[in-house]
Write the structure tokens for this entry.
Amino acid sequence: MQGVFDSTLPDGRAPATLSVRGGALVATLAGEASSDAVELALPLVGLQLEIGGADGHVVFCRHPDHPGRVLHGRGAEMRALLLPHVGAADQALLERKLREGPRSIWGPIAGFAVGLVLVLWLLTRSAGLFVGMLPMSVDQTLGAAAKPLVLADATGKVVTEPAVRGPVDAIMARIVASSAMPELGYDLTIVRSETVNAFAMPGGYVVVFTGLLKQIETPDQLAAVLAHEWTHVTDRHGMRSVAQSLGVIAVIELALGDVTGVLGSAVELFSLSQVRSYGRELEEASDAEAVRILARGGWDPGAVAGFFASLAAHSPSSEAPEALAWLSTHPSHAERVAAAQALAKRPDVRTLRDSAPDAPKVDWGALRAALRSEGEAKAPAADAKAAEEESR
Amino acid sequence: MRSEIAGKPSFAHIKLAMEPGETVRAEAGAMVSRSPQIRPRATFNGGFFTALLLRIFGGESLFVNWFTAEAPGELVLTQPAPGDVLELDLKGNELCLTEGSLIAATAGVDIGVAWAGFASWIGGEGLFRLTVSGRGKVWLGGFGALVAIDVHSPLTIDTGHLVAYEPTISLRTRMSGGIFTSLAGGEGLVMEATGPGRVWLQTRNLDAFAGWISPYLPG
């Protein structure tokens, strides 16, 4: 793309073809016929070069004897045309600025994509670090706001019966006391539903469904599930998910007390079930910590692996897909069970277990009986509906 | 092809009297009306990848319409924004366009995407810019009136006002003053255009208009 600016031209500018002839740089303007061709020239001696333009590869040629006249062309073409005819300084300028042709756009596009991936990766990596700098009160604000939304369907289904709540409460209290945050208060809700699930929200809000309680065989296994979920709270996995999904900026706003927009999105995000699964790495970290909590709390540390095995064995996968809710967010695979088993047998874990007080005494038989009688008392239709709602 | 821009400047639209065999390429959705003898044909905007590139980085539509006259007829084209339309003749020269300003072009005009740089991105004009070259007519649309300015000494342009510029123009993004002036003066970042060459500006800024109108929107 070559051209000329000149005050004598009708529009002050025209496309032109540049050439070097008779000691001058000549711009030939295409006319209607070849005889109409107009030529505008600048002497090569005293020619002033400047490089700029939209892509940084346009060479502007000026001469002090012809003010208001600028001949311009671009890139390699211009370099080839001018290089033999200009002084050493200008040669160096052309060599330096026009070494590459106009940039291909694929490089920047690839760079942009790589940059985006890098930023996302960094954000994922830094989320844990970043969340660690926030006060725990942010988690509590989020959890408190999320709880009513998450439990919106559970109205009238919250179990307060002491025979059920008592044992779960006692186990939960010991887990908290044996965890990394013994001073953090917990908020336990037991919901009457066939869904085999339990989850924890940031700030210590723990929800357990009776469907899960019915499938659990021993207090140690219940402790295993609750310890796993409680670790999501103390290790702030929920906050990490929020930080990753909404961006670190959103979490800063949350920390600064914006409880409208950002909190709303965070709560909404959290109430979507997929956020209750934290990905393989964090789930395995929770398993490992759950094993230690069990040992410190006086339970059998092998119950983490045992629970997976019993849940998989009990799941009537074909007839009741909602029964798989916990499994679906906590995929149980051989490696995971094996890792939990191996950890439970480690000497340091055994030492923890040996120096631990006895596990809290709970009336497990009363809990089982209460759950059984509840199942019989409830109308099957309502039961199915509840299960359907929960599985959504 | 005879062309007329009617409804200037607020509601400008392009009326084209087309002769048999003439073809115009228009952005998807640009058509207002056409005679029956003008046949539309939708294609990807270039090849599939070029179309994707133009869509993502050039702010153009994924598909374009090609209107070909089989017999003399009239085609009317417009743009989404209330504002002026500019007709430019390309005679082998090139023009750089900002996102969304192209409405239509005649068949001899080549459309491409070029790297514009991070400065342009920060200045709100996109990482990539659209270039038109070749021979023929192009129609550009803007929000408000369109003004052409010949740049001799560096010209400061508020972001969001640039519509098109000649490739001899170099653009830099910078703060409009010191930190305080930049933030308090409502100018923030500005572009600085250095010539020689010509720039076309729109006298209204869509972002500013959106900000101005948003308090009145329900919800």
Q: What stands out?
A: Chain B has a mean pLDDT of 86. Chain B touches chain A at residues 53, 57, 91-94, 96, 113-116, 127-129, 133, 150, 165-171, 194, 196-198 (CB under 8 Å). The first strand of chain B starts at residue 2 and ends at 6. DSSP finds four helices and 17 strands in chain B.
